[in-house]
What we know:
The structure holds two protein chains of two kinds. Chain A is an all-beta fold.
Amino acid sequence: MxxxxxxxxxxxxxxxxxxxxxxxxxxxxxVEYWHDGELVHxxxxxxxxxxxxxxxxxxxxx
Amino acid sequence: xxNTQAMCxxxxxxxxxxxxxxxxxxxxxxxxxxxxRAALFLASATINASTTAYTGTVGSVAMSGEVSGTGYTPGxxxxxxxxxPTATNSSVTAGVAFTTPAASFTYTTVTLTxxxxxxxxxxxxxxxxGSRPAVSVHTFGSQTITxxxxxxxxxxxxxxxxxxxxxxx
Lengths: 62, 169
């Protein structure tokens, strides 16, 4: 059973679409369920790979 | 032996645990870690290094630019715990201090129909309601969620990938 905008629905009644995004920043998977041409469920899982935030510092020279 | 000018790596690690205070700081009642939260922000919002605080009210009033929708609470989700801050020397002059939340952020059974692409981490123990100090902003590809779950899994907690890293070079 799938949680949808119309309540719990049997997966067999739904059209399933999936996708993947993979780049230097993230690996993302998503899944959608459609019913009669209407999006009724969409979930996503983003796995962060590496954050660009990198704070530099140094001791002052005399 | 020779002396080498450097910012001590242990100092950077201690910045992550509130050991040093060079100005007017906060009064801590215990040595316990602060509580942090992770809020989601719309792709159309403007949060960045200049953002100083979460200005919404956790649980009731969203900050400008924050997502809204069924199942989502203003202020997002609590970050249950962090890996113990670690400080590592990479040379006699350089080092890295880092930490990463110990678990994924999960927003369960939400509907967020306007595209969002950022998570904003803030300190929910310091400041006051309506002004909780900012920690960091992390972006990803735009997403929407419909009667589903959004999960944000953390990067590897090491010197090159950790979510929060302070470094000297």
